[in-house]
Protein: MBL fold metallo-hydrolase
Organism: Bacillus mesophilus
Amino acid sequence: MERIGPLLLIEGPNHSKVPFSRSLYLDCAEKVLFDSGADPDSLVRVNQEFGIELIMNTHYHPDHTQHNYMFPHAEKWINPIEFKTARTIDGIAKSNGIYQEWGQAGIEMWKNNLPEKWINSIGEITGTYEYEIEYLFGDVKVHFLHTPGHTSGLGSPYFPDLGVVYVGDYDMTSFGPWYNGTDGDIEEFIASGKRLIDLDATTYITGHQKGIFTKQEFKTEMVKYLSIIDHRDEIIEKYARKGLSFEELTEIGIFYPENTLDVPIFKTWERSGIRKHLHRLGLTVSTKDGELIGTK
Ligand SMILES: [Zn+2]
């Protein structure tokens, strides 16, 4: 387990790729875990050694909250914006774009396939932290930066004295930025990305894959990462000019590989993601026939 000062990095299986993530444990009097998406056996070992007392969830997504249930005696806090959303299955289904794309029937279908452990995990969340104020755990200062875009509430734990920030799903993966829930927002994503590179920090820890970046590395990667947004715009605009309908656009594979679009949740996010780019491009989907209106 890698250690940065009092922080232990707990990896998820397969380089912390989705459906897992990297967790942080802050070795101090309060015994704080940031996100619970890491390898469950590693989390058990950390718990046996230290006894986790408080879990801070950066946001409600299952790859960051799914092992909360393993620590029944720990307090669990999430950001104030997502506290309510995360407490109801319907709230989560709506944030995930399921209601927007498929209506109530889609929600009922989705509910049948939900992992019970995750439901228990988010159901156990008891409280919220505040953004942008200083918490002191042991002698370690922590601020939860409000970094919306990936979700509306994503909190990024920032340790100013250590020069470390846990940037969660601003993850610099080749997939690119993910803002596909109805609570995600492209412009906010870009603004949060810029805020993070301007932060007084030397070490950036992502939730997935590579993991540790120097400030310079993070800055360089962020430029590439955010440029994927413009690339998506270009592809969608090109096809829209060719006269493709919304339904046809959702079959190409702009976010997800084409051969995975038969997975209902990927198809949902492909659709909701394309809608956001259409909006950005000033295009709307005709409610009558699904044709795109407003091609410049
Ligand atoms: Zn996420």
Notes: Residues 59, 61, 64, 150, 169 surround zinc ion (CB under 6 Å). The first strand starts at residue 2 and ends at 4. The two ends are 53 Å apart (CA to CA).
